[in-house]
Amino acid sequence: MNFKKHSPFFLNAKILEGISVGKLKRSQIGRRDDGYGNLRDFAKSFDSSKFLIFYFLIFITVFIFFIRLFALTIVGGEKNRNLADENRIRLLDIEPERGKIFDRNGQLLAASQKIFLLKKDLQVSEISEKTAGELEKQLLAGENFEGELGKIEQKIKREYKFGEILAHVLGFVSQLQAEDQRSAADSSGQIGRLGIEAAYDSFLKGKTGKKLIEVDTKGKNISVLGEDADEIGRSLHLTIDSNLQKVVYNSLQKHLSRSSSKKGAVIIQNPNSGEVLALVSAPSFDQGNIAASLDDKNQPFLNRVTQGVYPPGSVFKIVSALAGLESGAITNQTEIEDVGEFYLGNVRFANWYYLTYGGKDGFVKIDKAIARSNDIFFYRLAEKTGLGAIRQMAIKLGMGQKTGIDLPDESFGLLPDETWKKSTQNSQWFLGDTLHLSIGQGFLQLTPLQINSVTSYMAVGYLTRPHLVFKIDAKDKKDEVEIKTKILANNIVKEENFKTVREGMKKACEEGGTGWPFFTASYKVGCKTGTAEKALGNPHALFTAFAPFENPKISITVVIEDGGEGSSVAAPVAREILDWYFGKK
Q1: What DSSP line would sit under 197-219, residue for residue?
Q2: In order along the chain (585 residues), what is the average pLDDT of each group of 10 residues?
Q3: Rounded CA gap, 375 and 507, in Å?
Q4: CA dist 438 to 379, 380, 402, Å?
Q5: CB of 158 within 8 A of CB of 98?
Q6: CB 206 within 8 A of CB 282
Q7: Number of C-alpha atoms within 13 angstroms, CB side, residue 314?
């Protein structure tokens, strides 16, 4: 067909005049009215300038098309080919198993295992490794392809053998989130939250593997093009004795229930090495169901051993006694009369024995003052030493600072002074503040771990760094890491003064002392009771001890929040635990 012959855009004046219009007569042409009225008038309306505009628009359109085609194929050709390949080839992460965690005796505490999930549309079911292998052999489902029954996906599940008993020691894991700081090579998998899982995450996490797969147009796996295998994380060996840990956990739970308290802490160390043998914080949490504890007002995720801060009460008198002797303000022969009570201005300072029973201890020396926990003696001692000597001794013993334990987010506690009070309360430091500090009250705040570190010092005469891990495994034996005892300080006080205070701690758990639950124990201990008063509610109950008195093997500190008297509430917990410990030896 001749397009020009039948298109009105190619009609000219001669045709319209009837010179040659396919032998049509003018009258016939005039009758072919298709809505324009008269074809002569229609043709005249299309002058040459309008034809030029039409051709120009066509040229511009074609030109833009060729420019775009040039940009896609020549200028950005390589980039766009890569994009096409990326839509066909995908790089997937292979989640590694985390390293195992063992106790000091080789008991398995935490381990990871692979689980297999069969996914078909919205249905997900867990299957065994054996079933996964059979389905893949029959081409019904696989990790690298989607079969008739669906696709198999492999996941890593972390399991904790002792659950809540070791929750604050081990912590837990969860899937890596965008805000977590990890290298690009470790962009998937699990990350440690709290406890050992967090502190040693870089050792436990292993190496993420990579798998290069080809997919079809629907995104289904076709084949594996390459694979870089994952590597299991390194295993850790803890200083924890899991059998002792269970005894401590159960004993604390029982005594918390008796005292109508829900919150407490127990820390046990080997004072010779700083090895943590047991660490329990209550309430605890279920590592397999973290969501259940998120709204608990009792703060189950708080590790009260390392993060809880408390006025230490009379257990701090150990520090005040050492400060008094070292400063020369008193000697082991200095006697101070227990007058029951006295006033400083209009503030009353009284001994607990006088307030409770109306009794007085008469003239007492430092060893008896420790054994009887005599407040009057320590008030008068603080008047002699002043704040500086007491605070300086506390700093030497690690208070107001982190112990360095290998757990995250340890608290500093609070060791106040004049500057602190002025900056926080806009008030000056008074003598009464020093007196309150000397018996562990006022603004002073310590963690149970800090108290236990001082107790361990009194057991052996040197200060160690507490730690929970003693060995980190490696594929090659030469790459294994052994964590040994770290002595932070020794010769802190003169031997004579050290022995004097230590003797007072021994008498505290003998007839006439405050640690009455140990009067009948078959072993000798050095101890100190504490009852930390608060503005509201029952006081916190504290007890700290080391045993046996000669050649100590263990130090223990117990705190029961809102529990009442340390001797009646916290000391029985320690007695029950130490009875078991020495009974099994």
Answers
A1: HHHTHHHHS-B-EEEEEEE-TTS
A2: 40 39 41 47 56 74 70 57 58 84 98 88 85 84 79 87 97 82 60 95 87 66 70 95 98 96 97 98 95 93 98 98 98 97 95 95 97 98 98 97 97 97 97 98 98 98 98 91 95 97 98 97 97 92 98 98 96 98 82
A3: 16
A4: 7, 10, 21
A5: yes
A6: no
A7: 29
What's the gap between Cα 287 and its chain centre? 12
**Which CATH topology does 242-285+305-473+483-584 take?**
Beta-lactamase (3.40.710)
Q: Where are the domains of the chain?
A: 3-68, 89-163+206-238, 242-285+305-473+483-584
Which residue has 């993060």 as its token pair? Answer: 307
Q: What are phi and psi of 158, to 5 degrees?
A: -95, 135
Peptide bond before residue 8 is cis, with ω within 30 degrees of 0: no
Tokens 């050649």 belong to 551
Residue 195's closest CA among 287, 289, 296? 287
Vertex 24, ends 21 and 30: CA angle to 5°?
A: 95
CATH class held by domain 89-163+206-238: alpha beta
- Predicted pLDDT of residue 11: 37
* Helix intervals (H) in 287-373: 317-327, 352-357, 366-372
Q: Residue 527, Cα to own-chain centre: how many angstroms?
A: 32
Q: How far apart are CA 221 and CA 543, in angstroms?
A: 63
Determine contact, residues 198/175, Cβ cutoff 8 Å.
no
d(CA 154, CA 169): 28
Residue 410's φ and ψ, nearest 5 degrees, are -70, 140
Q: Where are the beta strands (DSSP E) in 139-297?
A: 141-142, 150-160, 172-175, 190-193, 209-215, 221-228, 236-238, 264-270, 275-282
